[in-house]
Design the sequence.
C-alpha cells in the first residue's frame, strides 16, 4: 500500500489511530515517542520520515519525543555523526527540548539487568565463536541446536560475565546469550546474543567498557527507562518484536513500551542504505556527506531543498505497513511547490552571449523594475540596470532556427523581460566561425515590455547588463544514479550517473545574487531553482541547481486525472 498522489491526511494513519485509542482508553496519560538514530552516518530522507512521524505524533497528541542515540557499536560511531544528526533534526523543524539521551548512559543499568537474567536462568555465557553460533542457529526450515554451554551452571555464567566486563577475554571469545528457545520458528528467539566483547574506546564512555549490548538488548530497555509509550520502528524489526516483548516481560523495567512497525521509505534513483552512503563518501564518488546529490538531509539542504518541502513530502506519502517505492519526482514536486511560492526571482545567464543594441545611447543606463516574486506581492521589486551591451543565454539564439524555435534569430524581434523589444540585425563571428556577438536594434516605445501597437513577440528572454553582471560558477545537479532501481541487476556503483554533476564556469549572475545568504534558494528565471553553495567566497560565487523548473510529477498526476 502506498498513498502516493492522494493528499494523505497527517492524522489518520494506523499508528496515529493506535495512539489515539491508547490515550482515549486511558492506557497512557501522555504519549512518549523517540527517534533513535545510530550515530554511524548522516541522516537521510528516510530518517526524515521517521523523524516527522515520531516528533509529529508527540506534537499532535500533546506528548513528547526524545532524541536518543543508539550508540552501542563504538567501532562505527563518531562524534561528527552525533553533531550532524542534532543539527539535521533541528533544521527539519523538530525539537527534543531537554530530552536528549544516549543508550550509553544506560550501560550500567543494562549490565545489571543482564546479570539478573543470568540469575533467573534466562541468559548464559557462551564460549562458541560467532561462526559456530551461526552454524548452530539453524535455518528457516530447520530448528537450531543447543550450544554445549547452554546448561552451564549459572554461577559460572555470572563469574564469566563479570570477567568479560573486566576485560579478561579477547574480542569474539565469549558472548552473553538469552536462553529462550533454540527450536523457535522465529530465529530471533533462538538464544539471541545480548552482549559481545569489543575492546574499543567509545566516544562517550571511553575505556570504561569492553563489552557492549546488542541493539536488541539495548533498545527496548532504553525505551522502558525513558517511559516511551510507543516505540515506532521500521518493518525489518517486526520479527524482533517477540524478543523485544520477552525482554520487557523478563526484566523489572519501569514501564512497558509497545513496538509498532511501519514501512521504510524507498525512493527511485536513490539509495538510502547508510552502508552504501558511507562508501560513496569514502570512495570519493561525491563531495562528502553533504554533496548536493546525496539523499542525506545535509545534502538536500546544500542542494537548496527547503525543510518545509521535505516535511510536505513526508506528509504526502503517508505511513503504511507495506513496503513500496516512491517516485523521487514526488519529493521534487513538493520542493518546487514550496519554492514556487517563496523563492525570489533573479536573472542569471549560464552560457553568455553578448548582445549590443546599436541604436541605444552609449553610456546610458536605465533602471528597470523587476518583480521579485509574482506569487507574492509583498516580495516587492528591484531595479535592474539596462545598458547598450547585454548578455543573453547562448541557447536563446539560433542563426538558422528550426520551425518550433521562437526565440531570437536573425531579423526576428523578441522581448527582453522588464525592458524592451529588440530585433537582431547582425551576427558577428570570430575567425573560427563561432558566434561571438549579436547586433540588435531596440524599439524605445516598448519600454516595460509592451508595444503601443499591440504587437507581441513570441518569446521573452532574460538578460544581464554587461557591466553589472557578476561572474559565478554554477553546478548543475541531476540524480546520482542513472536508473530508477540502482543496483537491481548489476553492481550498484555501475549505476552511478556520469551526468549527475556538471560544473559550468564563466556564468554570470545579477549583482543582487552576491548577497543571497546561504540557506536561501532563488529562482533563476527560465532556468530553475538555485542556491549559493558553501564553497562560495566573495568574488567567487558558486551556485547549485536545486531543481529545474519542469515538474514531471505534476505532469504524471495531471495525466492520471485525464484517464
Ligand atoms: P541503515 O541505513 O544502515 O539500515 P538505519 O537507517 O536503520 O541504518 P538508524 O540510525 O538505526 O539507521 O535509523 C534510525 C531510525 O530511522 C530507525 O528507527 C529506523 O527505523 C528509521 N529509518 C531508517 N531508515 C529509514 C527509512 N528509509 N524510512 C523510514 N525510516 C527509516
Ligand atoms: Mg538501524
Sequence:
Amino acid at each position: 500500500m502506498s498513498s502516493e498522489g492522494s493528499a494523505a491526511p497527517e492524522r489518520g494513519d494506523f499508528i496515529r489511530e493506535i495512539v489515539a485509542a491508547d490515550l482515549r482508553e486511558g492506557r497512557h496519560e501522555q504519549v512518549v515517542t523517540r527517534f533513535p538514530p545510530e550515530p554511524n552516518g548522516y541522516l537521510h530522507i528516510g530518517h526524515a520520515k521517521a523523524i516527522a512521524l515520531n516528533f509529529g505524533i508527540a506534537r499532535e497528541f500533546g506528548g513528547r519525543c526524545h532524541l536518543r542515540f543508539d550508540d552501542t557499536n563504538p567501532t562505527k560511531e563518531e562524534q561528527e555523526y552525533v553533531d550532524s544528526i542534532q543539527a539535521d533534526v533541528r533544521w527539519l523543524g523538530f525539537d527534543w527540548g531537554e530530552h536528549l539521551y544516549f543508550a550509553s548512559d544506560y550501560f550500567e543499568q543494562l549490565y545489571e539487568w543482564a546479570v539478573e537474567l543470568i540469575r533467573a536462568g534466562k541468559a548464559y555465557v557462551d564460549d562458541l565463536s560467532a561462526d559456530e553460533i551461526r552454524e548452530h542457529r539453524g535455518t528457516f526450515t530447520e530448528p537450531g541446536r543447543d550450544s554445549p554451554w547452554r546448561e552451564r551452571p549459572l554461577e559460572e555464567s555470572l563469574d564469566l560475565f563479570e570477567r568479560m566486563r573486566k576485560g579478561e577475554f579477547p574480542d569474539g571469545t565469549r558472548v552473553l546469550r538469552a536462553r529462550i528457545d533454540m527450536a523457535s520458528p522465529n530465529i530471533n528467539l533462538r538464544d539471541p546474543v545480548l552482549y559481545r566483547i569489543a575492546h574499543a574506546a567509545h566516544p562517550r564512555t571511553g575505556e570504561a567498557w569492553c563489552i557492549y549490548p546488542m541493539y536488541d538488548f539495548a533498545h527496548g530497555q532504553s525505551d522502558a527507562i525513558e517511559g516511551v509509550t510507543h516505540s515506532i520502528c521500521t518493518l525489518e524489526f517486526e520479527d524482533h518484536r517477540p524478543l523485544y516483548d520477552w525482554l520487557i516481560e523478563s526484566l523489572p523495567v519501569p514501564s512497558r513500551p509497545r513496538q509498532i512497525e511501519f514501512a521504510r521509505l524507498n525512493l527511485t534513483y536513490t539509495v538510502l542504505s547508510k552502508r552504501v552512503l558511507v562508501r560513496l563518501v569514502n570512495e570519493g564518488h561525491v563531495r562528502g556527506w553533504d554533496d548536493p546529490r546525496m539523499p542525506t538531509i545535509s545534502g538536500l539542504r546544500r542542494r537548496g531543498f527547503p525543510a518545509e518541502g521535505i516535511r510536505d513530502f513526508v506528509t504526502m506519502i503517508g505511513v503504511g505497513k507495506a513496503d513500496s517505492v516512491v517516485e523521487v519526482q514526488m519529493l521534487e514536486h513538493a520542493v518546487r511547490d514550496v519554492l514556487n511560492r517563496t523563492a525570489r526571482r533573479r536573472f542569471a545567464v549560464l552560457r553568455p552571449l553578448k548582445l549590443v543594441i546599436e541604436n541605444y545611447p552609449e553610456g546610458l543606463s536605465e533602471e528597470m523594475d523587476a518583480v521579485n516574486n509574482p506569487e507574492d506581492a509583498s516580495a516587492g521589486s528591484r531595479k535592474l540596470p539596462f545598458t547598450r551591451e547585454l548578455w543573453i543565454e547562448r541557447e536563446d539564439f539560433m542563426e538558422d532556427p528550426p520551425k518550433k524555435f521562437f526565440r531570437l534569430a536573425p531579423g526576428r524581434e523578441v522581448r527582453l523581460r522588464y525592458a524592451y523589444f529588440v530585433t537582431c540585425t547582425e551576427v558577428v563571428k570570430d575567425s573560427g566561425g563561432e558566434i561571438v556577438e549579436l547586433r540588435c536594434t531596440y524599439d524605445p516605445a516598448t519600454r516595460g515590455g509592451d508595444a503601443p501597437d499591440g504587437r507581441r513577440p513570441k518569446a521573452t528572454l532574460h538578460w544581464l547588463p554587461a557591466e553589472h553582471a557578476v561572474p559565478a560558477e554554477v553546478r548543475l545537479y541531476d540524480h546520482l544514479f542513472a536508473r530508477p532501481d540502482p543496483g537491481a541487476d548489476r553492481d550498484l556503483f555501475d549505476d552511478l550517473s556520469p551526468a549527475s554533476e556538471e560544473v559550468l564556469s564563466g556564468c554570470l549572475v545579477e549583482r543582487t545574487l552576491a548577497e543571497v545568504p546561504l540557506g536561501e534558494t532563488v529562482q533563476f528565471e527560465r532556468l530553475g531553482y538555485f542556491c549559493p553553495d558553501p564553497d562560495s567566497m566573495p568574488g567567487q560565487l558558486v551556485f547549485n541547481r536545486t531543481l529545474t523548473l519542469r515538474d514531471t510529477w505534476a505532469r504524471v498526476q495531471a495525466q492520471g486525472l485525464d484517464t
Remarks:
- Confidence is low (pLDDT under 50) at residues 1-10.
- The pocket of magnesium ion (ligand 2) is lined by residues 38 (CB under 6 Å).
